[in-house]
Amino acid sequence: MKIEDYIKKNIVRKGSPDKMLALSLLKQTNQDKLFFDSLKITEISARKVASNYYDMLRSVLEAMASLDGYKIYNHEAFSSYLEEKGEKENSILFDRLRKIRNNINYYGSKLTIDEAKDMIENSKYLMNYLANKYLKDLT
User: Fold this and answer.
1) pLDDT in tens, 57-111
2) Sign of dihedral through CA atoms 18, 21, 24, 30?
3) CB distance 49 to 38 below 8 Å
4) Distance between CA 108 and CA 79 in Å, rounded?
5) d(CA 39, CA 58)
6) How far is residue 46's CA from residue 83's CA, in Å, rounded to a whole number?
7) Torsion angle of alpha carbons 66, 70, 75, 80, nearest 10°?
8) Which residues of 102-121 are buried (b: 16+ CB within 10 A; e: fewer)?
């Protein structure tokens, strides 16, 4: 689906760009990243830490969307948003991370340490790439 389809379904709202919201989201994400980077990934922590990295990634996407005047209320819509920004491969990666996160948060799927590290690495890559490309002028 395209962003316009999500707007028609009230899953995405179009409004004015909000630079202050984007800046606030980016600052919070950077603080969260400092904290979670300090944690050791163990069998006990793997699921929660990996899920939180996904949440940080989603916050970066929310910051980007707020600069474009969008408020997105559905994680799937972020994939379409990325695709419409010309980020097809990153849209696919985000969608893969979203599905893993949903499986561990809502369906009780287990996550090995290696799987968690892979998810974290991919989340960090995508966060850094998107922030450097779309949010670098905020700071």
Assistant:
1) 999 999 999 999 999 999 999 999 999 999 999 999 999 999 999 999 999 999 9
2) negative
3) no
4) 24
5) 20
6) 29
7) -110
8) eebeeeeeebeeebbeebbe
Pair 127, 57: CB distance under 8 Å? yes
72: three-class secondary structure by DSSP: strand
**pLDDT of res. 21:** 97
Residue 139 has pLDDT above 80, yes or no: no
Angle between helices 19-37 and 113-134 in degrees, nearest 10 = 150
Amino acid at 117: K
- Domains annotated on the chain, with CATH: 3-138 (1.20.120)
Alpha helix (H) residue ranges in the chain: 3-8, 19-37, 46-67, 75-84, 88-106, 113-134
For residue 95, the tally of other CB atoms under 10 A from its CB is 17
